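Dig into what follows:

_____
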Amino acid sequence: MGGLVEDQGGGDEMYRLKELALEVLEDEYPPSKRDDGSGIIVSGMADCGDIAHEIVDGMVPVYTADLLRLALDDLWLASTVPEIGPAFDGTSTAVNIIAANVYEELYQKVYEKCEGTNS
């Protein structure tokens, strides 16, 4: 099996990753399983930060070709310094920077959706 990102042209690979991440959120973590932010710990509920990390961590492509393909369509992925620092081994290579930016972008979308449905 190849990477998550398939070469179908058009620059919509990142969009597909975001949509897939949001689908996983809705399927695996419906609002009834999310912490409502009240501070009351309920068994079986998770907060949105943990949920977003759980979903997104496994969705970031690891193959160099997949990451470079994403950056070709969204150049900012390779030219913006990620807040969390470079991914993988932490060295400032293009691939590590792209991966970290993909993680941050997906995390933000999932977190915002999770928080929005809990409000």
About this structure: Residues 79 and 98 are 8 Å apart (CA to CA). Helices lie at 13-28, 48-57, 64-73, 76-79, 94-118.
